[in-house]
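User: I'm putting together a small comparison set for a docking exercise, and I want a reference complex before I start. The sequence is below, and the ligand is guanosine-5'-diphosphate. Could you produce the 3D structure with the ligand included, as structure tokens?
Assistant: Of course. I'll restate your input first, then give the structure tokens for the complex.
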Amino acid sequence: GRASPPLAALSQVLRLERSRRTAIVFPLQKLERYLAPGTDTAPFRLFQPGLATLQRAEALFRSDRGHPIDYVSSAVRMDHAPPPALPEVCFIGRSNVGKSSLIRALFSLAPEVEVRVSKTPGHTKKMNFFKVGKYFTLVDMPGYGYRAPQDFVEMVEAYLQERHNLKRTFLLVDGVVGLQKTDHIAVEMLEEFGIPYVMVLTKIDRASRGLLLKNVLEIQEFVKENTQGCFPQLFLVSSVEFSGVHLLRCFVAHVTGNLPTVEAS
Ligand code: GDP
């Protein structure tokens, strides 16, 4: 198999000096010191596991013979989806938001896992199912665009409404450009279905600190004022630098019921 990229594992991150380490493991926390006094940072720290918990979650994402992590199958219709046997999470977002890069980063400690991309125009968009041992499944939903064909919208809607083992939906938003019109359509759909979701800001290595702060505060405010089902803490990630990837693995492990408790750190 391929070698894991640097910083894919916590053990590598722990060798960095302290402030760099914080920036990688808790990217939101890194931003805190640049906020105006009085800014509400409570939503920054709702999910803040300690090292032992982060390591336990990482072990789930590391494959070995007794713990295979595999691509299972693709489906274009719900009746082609694998049986809903395990707790499941799904990842949705606009085309080009960085979804395949993020899923590749999450699975970088299982280099045999192939995250397929089907971007060719006209190529059928599919839901791709991955199985993480006997613990959970992760679904890569097709990217939506402003010209998403109706059958695609119906597939995503049917999945979100009918999938009873779905524990959480991860809505990816570009951290450089913030919420776009199509993201609002996705939010409205998730709100209408009343299912729990969380927003993940991607490509944070590309945004200046000022721009990232602006986008974080705006989206956080939007979530507070306009949503019921969205977790108030945003997750910031860079699939290039691996920032936020370890924390996101931990949150996935948590929402799929695979961490006994998450202690405060
Ligand atoms: P998808 O269509 O949502 O699956 O998006 P991709 O994962 O293919 O990413 C779209 C583009 O953004 C590609 O050129 C990636 O290299 C780039 N990209 C994705 N994630 C990141 C990131 O975290 N940082 C940077 N700098 N670029 C990224």
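The CA atoms of residues 191 and 229 lie 6 Å apart. The chain has one domain: 10-20+43-256.
User: Thanks, that's exactly what I needed.
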